[in-house]
Write a structure and sequence with these properties.
This protein is α/β, with parallel strands linked by helices and 598 residues long. The protein has 19 helices and 10 strands. It has helices spanning 12-22, 24-29, 31-63, 70-118, 121-126, 129-171, 174-221, 223-228, 232-284, 290-332, 392-399, 422-427, 443-448, 456-465, 469-474, 492-506, 522-536, 571-577, 580-594; strands at 353-363, 366-376, 381-386, 407-412, 415-416, 429-432, 510-514, 540-545, 556-561, 564-569. A 6-stranded mixed beta sheet has the order 6-7-8-3-9-10. Strands 2-1-4-5 form a 4-stranded antiparallel beta sheet, with helices on one face. Helix 4 runs antiparallel to helix 6, helix 7 runs antiparallel to helix 9 and helix 9 (232-284) runs antiparallel to helix 10 (290-332). The longest helix is centred in the middle third of the chain and has 53 residues, at 232-284.
Length: 598
Amino acid sequence: MRPSPIHPPDGGNRADWQTLRSLLPFLLEFKWRVIVALILLVFAKLANVSVPLVLKEIVDALDKPHAALVAPVFLIVGYGLLRMSSTLFGELRDAVFAKVTQRAIRRVALQVFEHLHSLSLRFHLDRQTGGVSRDIERGTRGIGFLMNFMLFNILPTLLEICLVAAILFSKYDVWFAVITFITLLVYIGFTLFVTEWRMVVRRSMNNLDSKANSHAIDSLLNYETVKYFGNEQYEARRYDENMQHWEVAAVRNTVSLAYLNAGQSIIVALGVTALMLLAADQVVQGKMTLGDLVLVNVFMIQLYMPLHFLGYVYREIRHALADMEKMFSLLHEDREIDDAPDARALPAGRADVRFEGVGFGYAPDRQILFGVSFVIPEGHTVAVVGESGAGKSTLSRLLFRFYDVQQGCIRINGQDIREVTQSSLRAAIGIVPQDTVLFNDTIYYNIVYGRPDATREEVFAAAQTAHIHDFIESLPQGYETMVGERGLKLSGGEKQRVAIARAILKNPAILIFDEATSALDSKSEKAIQAELHAIAQNRTTLIIAHRLSTVVDADQILVMDKGRIIERGSHHELLARDTLYAQMWNLQKQEEQIHPGY
C-alpha cells in the first residue's frame, strides 16, 4: 500500500493539524506494527507505574519490627523485574516501530524529490539549491521526530499522568490529586505560551540558516569564478554576514530556551514541595505510613520527569513542524507545465515537427519569439542561426515543453505537444546542449544515462561514434573514471563528446544539436561533423548554431534576428541573396583566415 500524496499545509495551527493528518497514512501502512507497538507501550507504562507501589510495600515491610526477611526479598525481586520490564517493553516497542518511521521518511522524501523534478524550468532557475536541500533535510528529520515522539512520548506520558492521578485520588487525600492537577495545568499553560513565542525565533533561525547554506553552496559550485577574480575574502565576508544574523537568532533561541527550562523547573519544584509537605503532615498524623510518603515522592518524581520531557517534546514537535513547513511548501509549488487530463502518449517512430505562429516570452515584459513558423519534415535537418539573444535556444526549450508557448502551437506528427504526455514527448527527443553538465559519477554512468537499460556494447558503440572511446580507454580507470562535480575533470570538448554519445545511445526520433561542437577545435569539429551528419540522416534534426560551417549541409537554414525568422533557404540560396546570412558567412571566413584554429 502506497500512502496518498501529502497535501501541503497552508499556515498556522490548521497547518499543523494538516501536517499531522498527512502522516496518518504512513501509520496505516503498517497498522499491525503500530498496534503491537502500542500494546508494548501500555505494558511498559503499567510496569513503570507499578514500581512505586512495590517500593511502598518494601519500605512498609522493612519498617515493621522483626520483619520477616522473605517478604522484602520477594518484593525486591519483583521490583527489579518491573524495572527491567519497563525498559525491555520500551526497547521492543522502538524496534517494532522503527520500520514505520523510516518508511515514512523515505516516502515523503521521495514525494518531494519527484515533485521537484515535475516542476517547471522556471522554478529551477529561480531556486537556490543549498536552501532547498537544507529544507528537505530538516523536514525529513522532523517527520521521524513527530512519528516517534507524538506516539511514544506524549501518549504514554498522558497515560501515566492519568494512572498516577487515579491512584492518588483513590488511596489518599483529595488534595494530593488537586495539587497534582493544578501543577500540571500551570506547567502545560506556561510551556505552551513560551513555546509559541519561541517559534518566531526558530522560524527566523531556519530562514537564516537556509540563506547562509544557499550562499555557501552557490559559492562552492562557482569555485573557479571565485578564483578567477580573487574574491575569496569577498565571499567569506558575504557568508559571515549571513552567519552573523543567524548567530543573533541562535543566541535568542538558546536564551529563550533557558528561560523556559528555568520556569518549568520552578513550577515542578513548587508542586513537589507542596505534595511532600502534605504527605509529611499526613505521616505525622498517622494517616499515612512511611511507605506512603516514599510512594508519593517516587510518583511525583516519576511523573514530573516525563512531564518535563513532555515540555521538551512539545517544543521539539513545534520546532519539527516549523522545520517541515518549508518542505511542505515545496510540495505546494504548482506545476507550471502539466499533462492534460486526456493526454495521450506520442507514438514512437519517425516524426515531423511544425512550429505554427509561435510567440513566447519568459516574462510579460520580455517577449522572445514573434510568430515563428517553420517545418522540419521527418528525416530532414533544419538549422537555425543568428546572433546571441535571437531566440534560437528558446526553440529547443519549447520543443521539450520546458515552457508552454503563449501564441500558436508546436506539433509533432500533427499532434499539439500540449496534448501528449511529457514523458513520451521527451523520450522522442535527444539533445546535445551547448553547456554540457555531467553528473559527479563515472564516464560510463554519464553515457548510459541516455538509456539506462543499454548494454555495455551499446555504450561502447555510442562512444566510438562520438569519437571518445579511444580517449576513455587511454585513461587509467577507463569508463570508470570519475568526471567530478559538473564534469569539471573533463575538458569542454570531452564533455561535449560524452553528451553526443549519450544522445546517440538514446536513439531518439528527433535530435537537437544546440551548439553541439562549440567546445571543439577545428580539427576535432571536422572529425565529428561527418558522424553527426550520419547520425542525423534518418532522424528529424534541429541544429542551433552560431558557427555557420556546422550547418552548410542542412536541408534548410533559418536566420533569426530579435525573435523573428528573417531569412530561410539552403546554404547556397542564402549566399546567393547576399543578405544577413551572407554577411555572417563572410565575417566568419575572415575570422578563420586570421585565426586558423577558429
